[in-house]
Amino acid sequence: MKFEIDVRPMTENTFIRHSHRGTYISNKGREWREHIQWHIKNLINKGSLIPFKEGTRLEGKYAFHFKGKRKRDTANYEKPLTDCFEGFLFENDECIEKWTLERFYNAEYDHVIVEFNERK
Fold this sequence. Notes:
The chain is of the alpha+beta class. It starts with a strand and ends with a strand.
């Protein structure tokens, strides 16, 4: 399964907030997650994406495309995006046994190419 998300990825530092009460998703993070999940639901409803069955072992690949030249740490972008897919594409991110993260600069627009495949 391969698809594109045409939105700038959010870093874990912006997605998550910490307070004396605990850890929570920021307001900005909630809005961003809702946008991603809306996009995923539409792709599923159109038949473009089929969620994986529970227990399926996966390999995941994210290709982050950034509009500018500013250097970025892809590890900070992986977790918030993966959390958006839980309950929609797969039950829990524990099923992803192998990750590949790539980054590209000077893209025409901010976007992420997402790919998940069953692991043999």
